[in-house]
Amino acid sequence: MWIDTHCHLDAAEFAADRDAVRAQARAAGVGLCVYPAVDVNTLEAVRTLAHRHADVYALGIHPLYTPQAAETDLEVLAAAVQAHRADPRLVAVGEIGLDGFVPGLDLARQVQIFRAQLELARAQDLPVILHVRRASEQVLQQLRQVRVRGGIAHAFNGSAQQARAFIDLGFALGFGGALTYERATRLRELARALPLEALVLETDAPDIPPQWLYTPAAARAEGQAQGRNSPAELPRIGTLLATLRALDPQTLAQQTTANARRVLGLKAPGIPPLA
User: Fold this and answer.
1) Record: fold of 2-264
2) Is the pTM of this model over 0.90?
């Protein structure tokens, strides 16, 4: 069995066939998906999905959604986390973090909302699911100041030194579609060299399509659609990582599943055991 530790099945791209997409992934061996919210408007959607498909969810405000976040949104989020804290399918505060890649985002505003969510996670004794894009050092600085129960650094693409810093703070590192590109030599070397116990797998579906689904910009300009990523792609991504590490896929599946269960605390009653 595999765990997709980061999947946005609530996204509009899945509106026409959401249940079929999840069924296809389950048939491929993806036993559990983690659905992170991105703003207060998706809190109930991810919770409903998790219960419908026997999956798990996280509640949070994504850094890309901080510009439109109202002053009361943190209160709404805190109330939702508190209301559902006893729900065994609520496993983290997320997707939260900092983004230094998208132009025009107010870093101070991001930090304010990120820090408040770290404090919420600490108060509720929940791990966090981190968005870290060109902001590893700033995220690590906040994590050192507001200690939480660890969690997952989603779509990790930092240095080996930064990877070790996250691991030392109790985090696993998420690898997904970006790993499948042959030109991603630095990322592949990192995934090969890191301790196996520090790795988890993800798709970030419908985003970050693996290489076999990617449509080049020139082809998109001519009207060819981008391939839609889905959680069913996870076993193929995992098999590639297993090849990089000279492991059989079943061994990798078992270890990354155990890693995800450890960092997200997937031992509560109501969460089905996975092979």
Assistant:
1) TIM Barrel (3.20.20)
2) yes
